[in-house]
Amino acid sequence: MKVRVFLIIALCALISSCQTMSKEECAVADWRVIGEQDGAAGYNPQDRFARHVQACTKAGVNADQTLWYQGYQQGLPRYCTPLNGLSVGSQGGSYANVCPIDLDAGFREGYDLGRFHHQKKSEISSLESRIRGVEQEIRTDEELIRAGTPDPRAAQSRIDSNRWKIRDMERDIGRLQSELSRIEADMDNFRYSRASRS
């Protein structure tokens, strides 16, 4: 019974967290302003407006698509800058292909560089996590040896093998960190070149 109640509460929380607007917000909505905010955030227009409609229909309010779309188009240029592309990419954000043709290339240049940076950081983080796991395996085998395991040579062999694995992963981390430093220098140059054009 308690599990069922918990699941119902969790489901309700999930549904409400997916709503874009509350009943009160729907009642006083300025659809042009909401559209502008959504455009400036780079949301996919069809998905985002559909979620507004879903939220506000429950509140008995009709969403104004015309005003919302006008605002969305006004907000989009704030999202579609090269520097924002760099920021979105480096944070691991996704791009919904919303930028107009004249702004898309600049946004993508920054976004691709930022995504490359995020990817390298993720690879380093993954290797560091794997090293921690292997270090735990070493500690477990060392404990077995101290406790008088029947086969200490097998445990020692695993320890030696795991230490080699760690050295290999540390070498990979060093290589990735060098690549990351070069990417960060490219990002600094990108920021400087874009700021100097403003």
Describe this protein's structure.
Helix content is 82%, strand content 0%. By secondary structure, it is mainly alpha-helical. It has two domains: 19-79, no CATH class; 82-198. α6 runs parallel beside α7 and α7 (101-146) packs antiparallel against α8 (152-197). Mean pLDDT is 90; it is low at 1-17.
Summarize the structure.
The protein has 8 helices and no strands. The protein has 198 residues and is mainly alpha-helical.
Mind telling me the C-alpha Rg? 26 Å
The geometry reads as elongated
**Helix/strand class:** mainly alpha
DSSP strand (E) fraction? under 5%
Count of helical segments? Answer: 8
Please give the structural blueprint.
Layout: H1 2-18, H2 23-27, H3 31-40, H4 45-58, H5 65-79, H6 82-90, H7 101-146, H8 152-197
Helix pairs in contact: 3-5, 6-7, 7-8
